[in-house]
Amino acid sequence: xxxxxxxxxxxxxxxxxxxxxxxxxxxxxxxxxxxxxxxxxxxxxxxxxxxxxxxxxxxxxxxxxxxxxxxxxxxxxxxxxxxxxxxxxxxxxxxxxxxxxxxxxxxxxxxxxxxxxxxxxxxxxxxxxxxxxxxxxxxxxxxxxxxxxxxxxxxxxxxxxxxxxxxxxxxxxxxxxxxxxxxxxxxxxxxxxxxxxxxxxxxxxxxxxxxxxxxxxxxxxxxxxxxxxxxxxxxxxxxxxxxxxxxxxxxxxxxxxxxxxxxxxxxxxxxxxxxxxxxxxxxxxxxxxxxxxxxxxxxxxxxxxxxxxxxxxxxxxxxxxxxxxxxxxxxxxxxxxxxxxxxxxxxxxxxxxxxxxxxxxxxxxxxxxxxxx
Length: 373
What we know:
21% of the residues lie in helices and 27% in strands. The chain has 373 residues and is an alpha/beta fold.
């Protein structure tokens, strides 16, 4: 994998996550108690031996850059290669099925040209998994493919995972014969992970050619429009996958982590998942605390009841408070006697004493960052 450079494309639509992305890009959304979504793809890169990583930014990326810093936590603070932030010349949030990411790739072609690796692994941040890219890259080389896209095959019962997704149809040998972006009625159950292996020089040529012909989107204008001209193959991924495309999917996949088997696979299957280090004391449980089937991060103080929930770093649950089927992000505070059920509290949310907030399992109530109720 030393011949691979990684590019993380943050031009990802998050129309259905507006409550959580008003002040941050999708990649910076907190997840699983201590992590951000981008931690998973960064960790997968470094665990697979990819040490040259460029991040194509989009929208308001201040919180993301504060989280990543020099890349030290992912062993990417290096004298040679390492982590590179590739700035966007566009303003505003990413919207629609076809975000205008091609212009930013074109404006950062100097970085791609100057890199010494032969091939590129292009990925986004919304796909959460623990994957070793080596078998997929070996498949890419054996097939002599121009592009190899990773996908996961779902049963019809999991059709909700197809929302705002790219779907593939493949022949028996893995050759991709069709690709659809955000289809209303998908003709395949093969969900693209939006992870692509491609020759570096070929990527440069496709970006340059598509830009000169008025293209705007890498996946559509560089890949799909050249489906008949390129050898594009699909490689199946069979492990656990969480695709964050809406508030509901964020809530559902977060709750899945309370299953020890899923948690173990996501964080340890093919290497550890790394994140920004914060030196805080372990979680503290006071005398009247009652915690069941929950993830509680360091720095938290619990004096009330927490059931089937996720508490991030520095959360305080006061005496007689109840947190049920909920996600409380960093430095949240649940006042004495307050009750929250089926609720997502963003960072720095404070619920006053005695307040009662309830959403539904299939429609969680989201409280935006910094809100006091």
